[in-house]
Amino acid sequence: MNNEAIEKRSTGESDPRVQLAFERTFLAYERTRIAWVRTALALISFGFAIAKVLQHLREQRGETATLMSPRAIGLIMIVIGLVSLVLADRQDRRAVKALRERCPGLPTPITGVMTVLIALLGVLALISAVLR
User: Fold this and answer.
1) 111-121: pLDDT as tens digits
2) Which helix (H) or strand (E) holds 120?
3) Closest among 41, 53, 59 to 129, alpha carbons compared
4) Quick check: 56 and 81 in contact, CB under 8 A?
5) Closest CA to 32 of 108, 85, 107, 100
6) Integer Cα distance of 123 and 10 in angstroms
7) How far is the C-alpha of 33 from the C-alpha of 46, rounded, in Å?
8) What confidence tens digit (pLDDT) does each residue in 50-91 have?
9) Distance from C-alpha of 38 to C-alpha of 105, rounded to nearest angstrom
């Protein structure tokens, strides 16, 4: 079928190929968001582990803090994880909004719940690492 003919049809018509294409695109957005959440979670958890465990080991040995102490590196990793999570969430919301304008029948994304939970975990990890 000609691409122009497909574009001229509205999504309200019963062309299952167009609806399935929108659904595949929506699911691709969902997978991308979950990948960003996974990456942010890894940065936050490794940053917290570095900040807490290595700082504890340094204190046991009686070493003094340097400019780039394990605590500073851990805090930077936690902040990078939180920032990446926020930026990925904003990008995903814009993309889904644009997709929803062309195809309003798409399901409501549930990955936002996971994003919020991981962001709360990151904020708690950051507060815990800052307070020692």
Assistant:
1) 888 899 999 99
2) helix 111-131
3) 53
4) no
5) 85
6) 44
7) 20
8) 888 877 777 777 766 566 777 888 899 999 999 999 999 999
9) 28
Between CA 121 and CA 63 the distance in angstroms is: 30
Do 49 and 77 contact (CB within 8 A), yes or no?
no
Task: Give the pair of three-digit tokens for residue 65.
Answer: 């803090």
Residue type, 74: G
Largest CA distance in the chain: 74
**C-alpha to C-alpha distance for 129 and 106, rounded to whole angstroms:** 40
Single-letter amino acid code for the residue at 39: T
CA distance 85 to 45: 13
Q: Which residue has the tokens 């990078």?
A: 80
